[in-house]
């Protein structure tokens, strides 16, 4: 295929995907918002954005591939090495730019904004222009900026704002240390959870031995996790799996119970047991108070020891296995297997690694595959998945798994796979007991 053929095929994919995205917005009887709009569209807050997410993977992947084919390579490499957007987002969130601009929908000059946010007007303008060039905030007249569809997500009470605060600190610091870490004779070759990039860059601070997980203030991580789950559309799982036929669900490593809460709302006859460590459940209970009284039970325990919640219809594990090594993930699944009755099911809800090439037939590991000439894994259309994989490595010395790897660990634990559901960024793998 020539470059011209590639470009023509990519343009056709982009046109078709862009029109499908417009259709998704317009299904709600409301036009697709422009970038200047400050109103939320019903689709922005819908639980089920799976169709749009799949379309956007295609669109982002195809647009990036098209520009990469046509731009001079040095131009592309330079753009990718010099991306300060994350640092500017961090300042915007910390100094509450969007909160102040929300009081001035027609815009505020940097001289006036500077007095409110405590950043020198010249520096403020440079930071805002980096962001506005990528459509976050808009410059309405010289040096006068206003909020737009993206920047309103940075207002402090928006869940995405907490996520930006979290991601732009720890992740970026570790990423900077990565090139030294990988060649360090001790840390670079280690797969121990106590010798990650995180411990490497804090090695003079007496943190050795403390895992990233232990170090994090539980509440900070939990707040960020709630936002993360909403951004990546975790609640889509409610709409692709048949929950209404279930009566009892054990949420294994339930955290703050974000998923259980939505499940209980959607299915009035379900009873949920939240199983987690005592310290996490103590925090979770503060959030739950008496909500759903009689339909939710809290059980403290350690999934490396035993899950004392027997014979539930379903054991649900969201964001659990990926921060443990294969050896530890196997112990967790064996505990789940022990708790399961002959008709119980287990649902693993995790990110899933997609290779750059098809592994069999027309699909990679049972997942959707991008149309040619796109990379089968959607390339830049799934970049967050590869960043997530790197985050797992830098924080825990673990990684995201392919569906085949998940299925194999399940098999070793005595579970047989029933179905894989592709949720665009994450997936659900449903298991039953292998031998009843
Ligand atoms: C990454 S969070 C996921 C929380 C939740 N499933 C979600 O998706 O929002 C991992 C959870 O596993 C729990 N956890 C960690 N070690 C555990 C253990 N040994 N036994 C039970 N739960 C544990 C943590 O307390 C935390 O709530």
Automatic annotation (TrEMBL):
SUPFAM superfamilies: S-adenosyl-L-methionine-dependent methyltransferases, Winged helix' DNA-binding domain. Keywords: Methyltransferase, S-adenosyl-L-methionine, Transferase. This is O-methyltransferase C-terminal domain-containing protein. InterPro entries: COMT-like, COMT_C, SAM-dependent_MTases_sf, WH-like_DNA-bd_sf, WH_DNA-bd_sf. Residues 220-415 form the O-methyltransferase C-terminal domain. GO terms for biological process: methylation. One of its GO terms (molecular function) is O-methyltransferase activity. PANTHER family: O-METHYLTRANSFERASE CICE, PUTATIVE (AFU_ORTHOLOGUE AFUA_4G14580)-RELATED.
């Amino acid at each position: 295929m020539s470059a011209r053929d590639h470009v023509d095929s990519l343009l056709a994919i982009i046109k078709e995907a862009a029109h499908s995205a417009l259709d998704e917005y317009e299904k709600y009887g409301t036009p697709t918002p422009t970038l200047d709009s400050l109103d939320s569209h019903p689709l922005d807050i819908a639980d089920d954005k799976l169709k749009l997410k799949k379309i956007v993977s295609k669109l982002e992947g195809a647009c990036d591939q098209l520009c990469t084919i046509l731009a001079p390579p040095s131009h592309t490499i330079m753009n990718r090495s010099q991306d300060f957007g994350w640092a500017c987002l961090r300042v915007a969130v910390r100094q509450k730019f969007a909160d102040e601009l929300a009081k001035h929908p027609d815009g505020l000059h940097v001289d006036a904004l500077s007095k409110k946010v405590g950043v020198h007007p010249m520096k403020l303008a440079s930071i805002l222009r980096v962001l506005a060039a990528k459509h976050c905030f808009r410059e309405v007249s010289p040096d006068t900026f206003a909020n737009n569809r993206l920047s309103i997500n940075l207002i402090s009470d928006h869940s995405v704002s907490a996520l930006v605060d979290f991601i732009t600190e720890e992740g970026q610091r570790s990423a900077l240390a990565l090139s030294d870490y990988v060649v360090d004779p001790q840390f670079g070759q280690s797969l121990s959870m106590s010798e990650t990039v995180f411990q490497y860059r804090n090695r003079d601070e007496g943190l050795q031995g403390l895992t990233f997980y232990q170090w994090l203030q539980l509440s900070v991580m939990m707040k960020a996790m709630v936002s993360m789950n909403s951004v990546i559309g975790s609640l889509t799982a409610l709409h692709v799996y048949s929950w209404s036929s279930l009566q009892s669900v054990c949420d294994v490593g339930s955290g703050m119970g974000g998923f259980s809460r939505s499940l209980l709302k959607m299915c009035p006859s379900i009873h949920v047991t939240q199983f987690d460590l005592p310290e996490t459940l103590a925090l979770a209970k503060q959030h739950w108070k008496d909500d759903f009284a009689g339909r939710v039970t809290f059980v403290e325990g350690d999934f490396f020891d035993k899950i004392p919640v027997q014979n539930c219809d379903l054991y649900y594990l969201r964001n659990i296995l990926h921060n443990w090594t294969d050896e530890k993930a196997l112990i967790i699944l064996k505990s789940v297997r022990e708790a399961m009755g002959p008709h119980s099911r287990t649902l693993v809800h995790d990110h899933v690694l997609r290779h750059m090439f098809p592994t069999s037939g027309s699909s990679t590991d049972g997942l959707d595959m991008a149309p040619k000439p796109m990379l089968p894994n959607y390339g830049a259309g799934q970049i967050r998945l590869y960043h997530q994989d790197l985050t797992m490595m830098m924080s825990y010395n673990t990684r995201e798994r392919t569906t085949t790897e998940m299925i194999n660990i399940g098999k070793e634990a005595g579970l047989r796979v029933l179905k894989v559901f592709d949720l665009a960024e994450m997936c659900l793998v449903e298991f039953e007991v292998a031998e009843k």
